Each structure stands twice: as structure tokens, then as C-alpha cells.
Amino acid sequence: IAWTLSIAAQWALIVALLIYAYDLEGALGVGLLGLARTLPTLVGVPLATSLGDRQSRIRVLIGIYLTALASAVVAAVGLAMDAGLLAIMAIAAVNAIATAAIRPLQNAIIPGLARSPEELVAANVASSTGEGIGLLVGPALGGLLLVFGTPVVAAAGAVGMALATVAVTQIRPDRRVRART
After folding, report:
1. Residue 175, Cβ neighbours under 10 Å: how many?
2. Which of 12, 78, 141, 176 has CB 3.0 to 4.6 Å from 157, enough for a Cys bridge?
3. DSSP for 114-164?
4. 72 and 157 in contact (C-beta within 8 Å)?
5. DSSP state of 172
6. 21 near 76, Cβ under 8 Å?
7. CA-based R_g, the chain, Å
8. In whole angstroms, how far apart are CA 65 and each of 62, 105, 123, 140, 180?
9. What would the pLDDT profile of 78-129 be if each residue is shown by its tens digit?
């Protein structure tokens, strides 16, 4: 549930950011936003996910979700206040690092939560299905909400990430696997 919500929220926010960047600087703004979302993840994601090797992976995952949530909220406020492209690019970079770090941490946690090979397969199927649903719903909802403006779309993304964060805090490993997660 958390993964599906985070994917949908992430893509709704991306729609808002791309439209905002286009409105400010046209195709150049969209390209710059793309770079701002991509380049920092090359360093940020390995650093963020390596924390899961030294601390509780679930706690690190919750921290990553909280970072994604905070950056989504700041993005919504930034869009509402007509922040400049550089500010939006910085916010987008933080959000991109956080949202990109979710999957590797999640993938490291899932085997420790599964009590059987069948549960692991089911978890992987559910994760892939949830990702597909999020990839469909997020941009579609973002596109529909554009009628109300990019700040509303970003706020919807922030609400989705808040719900995803609440969902991920509900992970309770079985005592038999607690030491591995």
C-alpha cells in the first residue's frame, strides 16, 4: 500500500513540477528540472540506502518516506508562492533522491519479512502490481487536478505521500525476522 501510494504521489508531483517548469522556462525549464531530478540521485540514493546497512532498515525507510513527504509539502508551498525555477529544482532534487531510495530499501526489507518463499513471491507480485497502479493513477490524477493549478496537484502528491508514510510506519516484522530488518 505504501509503495503504491508513494508511486502515485511521486508522479502527481512530477506532473506539477514539469508543468510549472514549462510555464517558467519552456522546454529548457523541463530539461533543467529533469537534470535536477536525475543527477543528484546518482550520489544521493547510494548514500541514503547505505544507511540501511548500518541501522534498522525499517527506520531508515520511514526516514526516507518522511523526507519525501517533507519535500512534497515544500514543493506544494513553493509552487503556491511562485518560487523560482532554481528553488523548485533544489526541492525536486531532494524529492527525487528520497523517492528513488525507497525501492532499494523496500527490496532489502521484503525478504526479511517473508516467512516463506510463497510469501516472498506474493510480495514481489503485489509490489509490481502496486507500482503499475501508482504509475497509472498518479499522473492521471495529476493531469485531472491541473484544472485547479500546479499547487493543488503538488498538494495532492503531498497528501498521497503522507498516506504512504502512515502506511509504511505500520510495518511490524515478525519476531523471527526482526534482527534482519
Report:
1. 7
2. 12
3. -SSHHHHHHHHHHHHHHHHHHHHHHHHHHHHHGGG-HHHHHHHHHHHHHHH
4. yes
5. -
6. no
7. 17
8. 5, 11, 19, 22, 20
9. 999 999 999 999 999 999 999 999 998 998 888 888 888 999 999 999 999 9
- If we measure between CA atoms, which residue out of 70, 85, 66, 107 comes closest to residue 17? 85
> Distance (Å, rounded) from C-alpha 67 to C-alpha 119?
29
This prediction has a pTM of 0.89
Q: Which residue has the cell 505500520?
A: 170
The gap from C-alpha 119 to its chain's centroid, in whole angstroms, comes to 25
Residue 177 three-state SS = coil
CA distances from 9 to 76, 114, 118, 157 (A): 12, 26, 29, 4
pLDDT less than 50: residues of the chain: 178-181
Q: Tell me, what amino acid is at 65?
A: Y
Q: How far apart are CA 38 and CA 31, in angstroms?
A: 11
In terms of Cα–Cα distance, which of 161, 170, 151, 136 is closest to 68? Answer: 161
